[in-house]
Amino acid sequence: MGNRTKRAIRLAAPLALGVAVAIVAAVLSDRIPALDYVLALSWAPAFVLSLLLIGAAAGIGLALPRSTPLSGEPSVPEPVISRPTIPEVRRKPAIISVHGLEAKAGCTSVAFNLAVELAAVGLVDGRRPRPICVVRAGPLTTTVGLDPKPFTDYCRSHMAAVGDEVIELAELHPSGCEVLCVADGVLDGHRLRLLSSVLRRFYDVVILDCPPGDRWLTDTAFDASEVSLLVGLPTEESAKAVLPWSDTSWRYGLDARFGLLVNRVRANTSIPELLPTAFANLALIPEDAAAGNALELPWVLRPESRAGRAITELAARLVPDLAAKDSSHAA
What we know:
Elements: H1 3-29, H2 33-40, H3 43-63, E1 94-100, H4 107-121, E2 131-136, H5 139-143, H6 149-157, E3 171-172, E4 178-182, H7 189-202, E5 205-210, H8 215-224, E6 227-232, H9 236-251, E7 258-265, H10 274-278, E8 282-286, H11 306-318, H12 320-323, H13 327-330
Helix pairs in contact: 1-2, 1-3, 4-11, 7-8
């Protein structure tokens, strides 16, 4: 219930009480001669009495307790988010590629939060899973001190091969997720294919943060992945960018391998019609009321984060074999 509605109720209740008192006084005036005499003297006493009644009603309204929001309650209304319909990844180890439909759509944050969620709550063969997230260098990685230089230097010294030692370049996040920071332009399609082959041997799930615009790299990431997630915003730009993906998926019968994530959805957001109709698999991620860097403190580790709750449910549906908890783990 909104604040305006609550305020109207608080004012209407005492005013109704005042009117009721005035009606009772008018009725009793016929039975009590003294009261009838006072009211019949002139209009002035009746006017004064009305003012007194209204003043008393206003005083009662101000004295009534007011509901105050809890400290953790967001001030912005939470949008109604439908349950996600996302394809399941059953292959072990799994590779999931995350593609941004436009710049600053939150592709890196979504990829990293998925990896953190699986590392923090997942379970595979009686142990915590070992996920790795290959993220693009940018403002988020700079904030937490992830350096793309080690991997860049490695690629320069290994022009035609990627060996097992590449996993030593990954940095361990406190959640248990490992992160490999990659500068734009360092990975091409051939090197990504070699890197994916190595990472499959050491990790339970590999999540690739793919840059928009590099078609060769995008096609290679899609070929190597069991599921590709497209991250867009509720904008016309994302709606336009999703069309080629949608046409390809339907033409070749690959719709089951795609999932569309519409990020930063608000309660009053109008989503372009093309977005929810482009793919059968769709998930909405609400605008996060909690401020902060998504890599420094991931959404999924914040109890108050709306986006974190959406990512948690997304991970459970996307990788059910890793995200499922047995009774001993839940205890």
